[in-house]
Every structure is written in C-alpha cells, then in structure tokens.
Amino acid sequence: MIPKVREAFNAGFEQEFYENLQRHVQETFGEPCAFRISETPVFISREVRNKVFKACDSIIDQIWKLDLEAIRRQYTPVQTGTGNLKGKPHFLAIDFGLCQDSQGEIVPQLIELQAFPSLMFYQPFLGKAYLSTYPNIPKTGFHYFLDNLDEAGYLKKVKELILGREHPDNVILMELYPEQQKTRLDFWATRQALGIEVVCMTKVIKKGKKLYYNKDGKLCPIHRIYNRVIFDELLRYPDLKTEFNLYEDLEVEWITHPDWFFVISKCIMPLLNHRYIPESFYLSDIPPDLDLKQYVLKPLFSFAGKGIDLNPSRETLDQLTDPEHYLLQKKVEYASLIKTNTDKNSKVELRILYILDQEEDRLKPVINLTRMGKGGLINVSHLTEDTWIGSSISFFEN
Fold first, then answer.
1. Residues 161/136, Cβ–Cβ less than 8 Å
2. Tag placement on the chain: N or C end, fewer CB within 10 Å?
C-alpha cells in the first residue's frame, strides 16, 4: 500500500529477523505462539487509514441510533439476560477486509463487529517485538497505537478500564480452559501487565451472590471480571460443571457484560448502511431473486470463522434448524495487496480495537489487530503451511 516502504522492507528482510521474533516470543512467555505469526507487519497509508476511520465513525454513530434493548430481547438467548446491560460496552472490535474497487482504489469492507475484547495485551507486545527484532522497519513516521497514544498511555487507559479502582487481587481474567486456548499468550501478557490472575470459569467459587477464586490456598473475592469467555465456546461443552452461569444476578462487575456479545455483533449488520458495508440480510428477509452465489452464510455469534459457508445453496438454507441465528452477507473479495518474498501476495484483514473512555463516555480506537492470508478465508489457523501469512499488526502512516 506504500510501495517504497514495502519494497525497502522486503529487500532488507532476512529470515533471521523472523527467527529472532519467534525466539523473543518463546523467551517472554515460555512457549511459542499457538497461531502462526506473519513474517511481516502491514504498512497502511494515510489515505487508507482515513477511509477505515470514516467507516468506523459512521458505524459507531449508527449503533447508538439503534434500539439496542429490542435487539437484546431478540437475540439474547432466553435463558440469559439479567437486565444489567447499561451504558456502553467497554470494548468494540471492527473488522475490515482490504479490497479494491472498480477504479483500483484500496477500500475497506466491513466483515464483522464484536462488542468483546480482543488481544489487548498481545498486540502491543507484537508491535514492539517487530520493532526490536526487525532493523528493516521504519523507526519514525508510523505507529500501531491509535488516538495519539504511546505505549505508556495505552497501558494506563486499558489498565484503568479493566481494574477500575479495585486491587488486582480482586480482578480476574476469566476464560474457559485458558491454557488450551490459542489466544493464551494474550492472557499471560495481561497477567504480566496488570498483575491479575487468569482463572478458568470452572474454578470460580460461588457463595450466595459473591464469587471467589483460590489464590495461594485462600479464597479471594472477585469484584470485577475481565471476561474472555465466549458463549459460543460454552455450547461446545454441554456437560460443563460450573458453580454459576454468565447471566446470574451476582455481586460482580463485568468488563464487559456478556449480553454485549449478542447485542453488538454480526446480528446488527443488516441494520447498518455505508459504502464500506457489504449488503447483508437476515434469512427471514431474503429477496426471492437473491443470487446466493454472491453471498456468504454466517452464524451470528461464532468466532474465528467457525460455521461460515462460502458457497451456500437453497438446500443449505432449508436444512438449517435455527435460521434466525444466521445471515447472508455479500461476498467480499480481498485484494492481494501485500507484496511478499514468495510467489503469491497476501491479503489483509484489519481489526480496529476500541475501548470505552469512561470520562467522555465514548468509544475510542487504541490499537489494531491484523491478519494476513492467501486463501479464501483469512484465519490465522488456516493454510499454516504457507509463509508471509498469519497474525500481524499494522503500522499506520502518520
């Protein structure tokens, strides 16, 4: 996207840089990353950056004009929902595929959005790790933090959001079997940065309306939960034994409340309108003459590309037992934008990560997450035998 920068990076690239990066990950966390790290960051021009953030601003403006309580009633499962949904979510992630329009201009296209935290501590680690292990990355003129933040400012804002005024002992990062999750390096990075424990949901203890966890052999009260449990994951374990569920009336503060997972997600995409938002339909609203070859079938609430059908048919739709939990989205053709030192260029999916500025009561962009691939579905767990693909971060031109 910035030819001179890309050409200089590729010309100066050495496999040793990548090996040093992987070694740095291993030495920092005591294990390698569970998903593939790309050999390269992405360099994004001011022009593309401006398009992305104009789209983000429009999306967020439209979100607050929706009847979110009605969406909550419609899409939150009947066994859930405690009435605790107030204010705004603490986190928002907006994903774009980078494409080319009919004039050859690079344009973002919305892929999905989630009111759920992403790799809030792994991403700043990765950006810094690229800079420290790759001498061929420009040291000035680019940044991976957003909203004029630097490393210290970013840590301060995210720390304040997650901890509030609580002691770290009374705040946990909660996940389901965290040591098995592919994103576990982010959990360990969070623990290092905030001093909070990473606790499996199955090990949380309930007494009345209060929650506790075992710390050094003693019960420690939990006042705030930095929630990383994805409801979709819970459904994979029908016999899961826990002392509470995500939707009980408990004396605990959620960062962010589980209901936001259902309210601001792919389920609202048919309600949004912008030149950078592909057309989408609830299955109940499909026009009779819709050409399914131009659309992708997506579950409303799955993560990591699970359940996506790139080539749906009428027969597929007719066989769905829960059609209300799916939508059709017009296909987005990612452009092979990133020149690589291989025989194929890479495609880019860009996730802008927002946190709630509680003083201003608005969501602000703070950092990005970038994924690269060469296949039809951009996913860090797919086509991992290839190179110059996988988890990455974007450096935005100042």
1. no
2. C
CA 368 to chain centre: 9
> 392 near 41, Cβ under 8 Å?
yes
Give the closest residue to 200 by CA, choosing from 232, 167, 227: 227
Residue 368: what residue type?
N
Task: Report helix, strand or coil for 286.
Answer: coil
**Which amino acid is residue 73, in one-letter code?**
R
Greatest Cα pair distance in the chain: 64
Which bin fits 391, alpha (ψ -120 to 50), beta or left (φ > 0)? beta
Residue 284 tokens, joined: 């109940």
Q: Which helix (H) or strand (E) holds 306?
A: none
Answer for the pair 223, 252: CB distance below 8 angstroms, yes or no.
yes
Q: By CB neighbour count within 10 A (0-12 exposed, 13-18 middle, 19+ buried), where does 327 fall?
A: buried
Residue 361 falls in which region: left (phi positive, over 0), alpha (psi -120 to 50) or beta: left
CB-based burial, 28-56: b 16+ in 10 Å, e otherwise: ebeeebebbbbbbbbbbeeebbebbbebb
- Say which amino acid occupies 289: D
Tokens of 331: 């296909």
- Output the CA angle 288-294-296, nearest 5 degrees: 95
Helix (H, G, I), strand (E, B) or coil at 72: helix
φ and ψ of 155, to 5 deg: -60, -40
Q: Is there a contact between 262 and 82 (Cβ–Cβ < 8 Å)?
A: no
225 forms beta bridges with 172, 254
The C-alpha atoms of residue 75 and residue 91 are separated, in whole angstroms, by 19
Q: Give the tens place of pLDDT for each residue, 119-156.
A: 999 999 999 999 999 999 998 999 999 999 999 999 99
Average pLDDT over residues 287-309: 83
Question: Cα separation of 50 and 344, whole Å?
Answer: 27
CA–CA distance, 367 with 123 (Å, rounded to integer): 8
Q: What are phi and psi of 149, to 5 degrees?
A: -85, 155
> Which of 51, 60, 43 lies closest to 362 in space, CA to CA?
60
Q: Is the pTM of this model over 0.70?
A: yes
> Six-digit token pair at 146?
């957003």
Please, which residues bridge with residue 198 across strands? 173
Per residue in 2-43, pLDDT tens? 999 999 999 999 999 999 999 999 999 999 999 999 999 999
